[in-house]
## 1
Amino acid sequence: RRVFYTGVYYKDEDNNSKALHDRIFYSQPGRPDTIPTSNWVDLGINDGDVFIGLTSFANRILAFKRNTIYILNVTNPSPMGWALENVIENNGANSKSSICRTRYGVVWANTNGCYMWNGQGLPTELTTPIDVPGTWSSDFTGCNISVGYDSISQQLVVSKTALSNSAVTDVDSLCYIYDMATK
C-alpha cells in the first residue's frame, strides 16, 4: 500500500533543486502520489554511490547501488517497525535493466556474475555452470547488462546492451540463457 522512490530531486524553500541519491522516499499508505519530505530512509549515507534501482520481493525492498544491495524488511505497516535485514557488499547493479523480478526471486547481473535472492539468506550465484574462469567478466566488461525473464518457458535471459546511444554491433552481441527448471 506504499510506493517507494529513489533518485529524487526536489525544490527547497528557496526554489533550489536538490538531489538526494542516498535516500529512499516512501508514500503515505494507500496514497502513492503523496510523498512528504519527512518520509525517507537513508541507507549507505556518504558512501560515494547512488541508488540504481529498487524492487520488492517477499515483503522486502531490495535497494541496489553499484557495489551494495540493501534488503529492507517492510512487513510492519509502520515505518518505525521496518528493519534493515541484510547488506550485501561487493555486489550490485550498474543499471535498472540489470535487475529483474521472477517468481523464484529477484535476479540481477553485473560483471562478476548473475545472482538470485529468493527471500531468504544470501544470494545464489547462477553463473557457476560457466566453468571457464573469466568468461563472464570478459563478456560483460564495458557494457550495460540487461536481464529479462520469460515466465512461460521459465528462462532468464542476460544480454549485453550499449553503454550510450551507440549501437551494439552483431559482433558485440551476446546473450546467456538460464533455464530455471533445469538450472
## 2
Amino acid sequence: MITVTHLIAGLGKAGAETMLYNILKYSDRQQFQHIVISMGAGSYYENAIKQLNIPLYVFDIKKRPVSSLIKIRKLLHKSQVISCWMYHSCILGYFLTTSKQHYRLIWNIRQNNLEPRYNKRSTIMIAKCCAYYSKNVAMIVYNGKPAKELHERFGYNSLKSQVADNGCDTEKFK
C-alpha cells in the first residue's frame, strides 16, 4: 500500500479543497492510504474527511509556527508520496523534505490567474519561487490546460506538467 500525505493550506469550501476531498472519497483504499495535513485556514471539509476515516492533522501554523513545522516535517517523512495543494503548501512541502525525497513530491496548482490586481503580492512571490524550484519535483498537476500554459510561461518546468481537469460529484448533482 502506498501512503500519500496531502499538505494543504486549509480545508475551506473552494476548488482545491473540493478536488482533494473527491480524490480522498473515490480513491482505491486497497492501494492508497491517505493522510491530510491542514495548516489551519478554513474547516469546511474537516468533518467530511474524518467521516472517510482518513487521518487528519490540523495545525495552527500562524500561532505555533515552529512546533507546527517540526510536526508537519515528521509526518511528511513517513509517506511515500507527498501531494501539496496550492502555492504556499507547495513551497513549504518542498523545503520540509530533503532533496533525496523530491522524487515523490507532487504539486497541485489549482489556479489559472497570476495577475497582480487579482492576487496578493506575497502569493505572486511564492508562485515565482515555486517556478524556480519546479524542476526538482516529481510532477506538477494543473486544473486545466490554461493553468498549465500560464504557469509554464511563468517559468514552471514543462517536463513535469500534467493536467487533471476539475470535475464534480455526479451522484450529488444527478
## 3
Amino acid sequence: MTSYSSPKPLRWWQKHRNRVLLVGLLFVLPALVNFTVFRYIPIIGSAWYSFWDYSLLGGFREFVGLDNYVRALTRDSSVLNGFRVTLLFVVLKVPLQVTLALFLAVFASQERRGTGVIRALIFIPVVTSFIVVSIVWGMLLNRDIGLLNSLLQTLGLPRQSFLTSPTNALPSIVAIALWKDVGYSVIILVAGLKGIPVMLYEAATIDGANARQRFLFITIPMLRRALTFVIITTTLFSFQMFIPVYALTGGGPGQATNVIVHYVYQQAFVYSDMGYASALSIILLMILFVVSAIQLRVLRGGDS
C-alpha cells in the first residue's frame, strides 16, 4: 500500500502561503489606500455633514437632522431643475455613445492596414485632460472667433451661439463629452469583439446569414457583458458630468446646463453651504445606486 504524498505545488503553497498573501496584499495596498482615503472616507464624511448646518468657513453650527434632505426634496426648485437637466444629458449622451462606440469598435476590430493608428486616434481624447478638451472646444465653438462658425459663414450659413443659447448649450456639452468619452467605450467593445470565436461567423456564413444577421444574432448577444459594462459606466459618468459645464457655461445660460453636480459645487464652494451640498451628494449617490442596480438586473437578466 503506497502512502499518499502531496504534489510539489501544493506543498510549496502550504509552506509559502503567508508570504504569497503578504506580497499580494502589498500589490493591492495602494489601490486600497486610494479607495479608502479618496472614496470611502469622503462618502462617510458627507453622510455625517449632511445632518448639520455646516460650512467650510463657519464649521459646524447646528445639528439639523433631515432638514437638508427635506429642503432638497421639497423646497428647492433648483434641485429639480438640476436633476431634470442631468437626466436630459444622460438620455442624449448614453444612447449616442453606446451606438457610436459599437460601430466604431466593429470597424476598429477589423485587421486591416492602419487599424492600430485608427484605434490610437479614437483613444487619444480619452487620455487628454478634460479641462484642456473643454477649453479647446470652447474656442472652436465661440460665436465670434470660433473655427466652426467661420466654416459656417464660409458656406453662407448664419453663425450659431453654441454655448450661449439655451437651446444649443446642452447639446453642445453632450457633443464635447461624447467626443471625449467614446474612445473608452470603443476599447472595451473591441476587447469583447476579439473574444468572439471566428467559427461562429464562419458557421453562420455557411448557413447563408448575411452581414446584418451575423451582427444582430452573433455580435450583439456575444457582446452582452461588454455592452452591459459600457452602458452602466457611461450612465454613471454621465450623471456625474461637471468639467465642461464648469469650464464653458457655468450652468448657464440661465439654468440650461446646470447639471446636479455643478449645482452641488455651487452650494459647497460658492455659497459655502457644505451641509446642504453633502445632502445633495448623498441623494445623488442613492439615485446612482438604484439606477445601476436596475440596469444591471435588466441587462444581465438572462445570465446565470
## 4
Amino acid sequence: MLYGFDKKIGEFKALIKNDQLAQSYVFYGDPQIGKAAFARHLAAFLETGDFAITTKVLVDFSEVVPEPDKEEIGIETANGIRSFLFEKPFISLRRTAIIPEAERLTDQAQAALLKIVEEPPQNTLIILILPNPDFLIAPLASRCQKIYFPRLSQEALESCLVKNYKIEATVAKKAAAESFGRLGRALALVGYNN
C-alpha cells in the first residue's frame, strides 16, 4: 500500500499517458520512505494498468536483490540488467529494472549502467533507488531524472497508521513520533508484517 504519494502517482500516470516517461530515474530520500514500493507499483502499472502491487508475476520486471553477505553490487549484476533490458517487452509498455540500495554499486558497475543509460534500448525503464544521488558517479547521476521522496508529517503518518493499518491510536502516535516521518520505520516499530 502506498501512502502520501497521490501527487506523484498522478504525475507518473500523466507521463505514461503522454508518452513522456524518461528511461532512467533516481528515486532518492531517506530510508523507509517508500521509494522502492513506489517503483514496484510503477512497474505493475506499466504491465497491468493498476498502480498497485499484484500477486501476479510481472514478466517484464526485474529487481536487483543485493546479497546480504556482500557489501557491493558488482559489474556482473549490471551486465545482467543490460541483458534483461535488451529483450523486448512481452506484455508491459516497458521492461523495468529497479536497483534498490544503488549506493552499493561499484564504480565499475555504475560505468556499465552509464552505457545503458546513455544509449538505452527502446521501451525500457531503469530506476536507481538510494538516499542521495551524490553516491553515484557524476556522469550517471546527471543522465537520470531525479525524483525526491520526502518524509511524511507526524500527523499524516499517525493518521495513516490508524486508518490504513488499524493501529491503536496511542501506539500510532508513539510510532509516528519515533519514526521521523518514515512509514516503513513506523510499521517496523509497531511490529507490522505485511
